[in-house]
Each structure stands twice: as structure tokens, then as C-alpha cells.
Input
Amino acid sequence: MKIRAIDAPMGPLIMLIAAVFLIVSAITDHQWLYWLAALLVLICLGMYLNASLNGKYQIIDETIRNLHLKPTAQVLDLGCGQGAALIRIAQYLEVPGRVIGIDLWKKSDQSNNSLKRAQANLQAAELADLAEVQTADMINLPFDDHQFDCIFASLSIHNVKPAINRARAIQEAARVLKADGTLAIIDIEHVDEYQKVLENLGFHNVMVKKCGARGWWGGPWLSTKVLLAKRF
Output
């Protein structure tokens, strides 16, 4: 089952409006520079949509494969949205393995984002015995210390503001992660910030890699990175 939703939908909408405005200006003012500007904006829009509708799912799949999850693993998905990563993770598990997805269901973060939509996607994938979703805030997780073998966050922590709350989200993830567990974060901003917080928390094995053009949200200035961290 494939889930497709546009992330931060106001971004591409603004780019589309800007491109239309430039095209109209080019026609009315007979200025070739407007055509060039419109073309550049449309290229950026194309890269954004490719990252949101294709690239991010390739990156999610690759990251989950590299986690080598045990079938009985207990996994937490921070900011699960409609369940794109959640469903992929659940496919690697067997009972009593389980993945829990949490979100605040803001449509500004992802189009059509809602608890009901996520639950419906789980039912359609026939994975309700391996996965669940609930409303919760990642800066105040309703889980016990050292409960999860893996914490997964895909394009979600950057939505937390301000920086002190993002640090709190990382601290909470570390709290509920088992001592030998793995933290996997896919994001486009603040990754260096996450790395510093984790190192201060005692994570000595933190790796960050870029994902190339497939993860460009309009251009290389906003590119997707994957952070993998272990305490030991």
C-alpha cells in the first residue's frame, strides 16, 4: 500500500502562484527575464513535488531496511502523519512486535493529515495487529523510560518550534529508547542541532548522511539528511 501526501502544502502552492504571476508579467511586459524566473520557479516546484511524492518514500524505505529490525521489535514513529513510514515498519514485524505512531495531526504539516485517515490506512493495509496510532506530543511522550527498541522520525521534528522544544523532543526520544536501541531521524533542517543534543546525552555513535537530489525540497539548499544514533 502506497500513501502519497504533499508535505507543507503551502510551500508548493506559493511557488505555483509565483510562477503564474511571473508568466503573466512576461506576457504583459514582454520581458524575457520573467520567463527565465518563471522557469526556475517551476523547476524548484518540480523538485519539491518529486521529493514529497517520490523521493522521501525511497529514503524512508532505504532507512528502514538499514535498521535491520528484529520481528519482535517495539518501535515508536514520531510524527507519523498518515502512516507512510508506520506501515512500512509494521511490514517488518511479527506479533508481539509493534509500532506506535504519534502525531498532532496538523494539516499545515501534511495534506489531509488526520487521526482517522491514519487509522483507515492501517485497516486497509491489514496491519492493525502490528501498528497503532494515537494523538500525542513528541515533547511530552506518554511512554515509559526505555520502552522502545527503535525511535523513527521522518520529516517531523523540524516542525517543532522553538529550538528548545526540538531539544526537548530529542530528549524525550532518548528517554523512551532502550539503552541498546537505535534512533533514526530523516529531516531537512536542524540535523546538526539534533546531533549536538544527542552527543550531549551520551550518544557516541551518531552518523549523518545526505540523500542527494531525490531529497531536494526545491533545491540543494534544502536537502534531506538521515541521522542514525546509538548510545554505544
Notes: The chain has a mean pLDDT of 94.
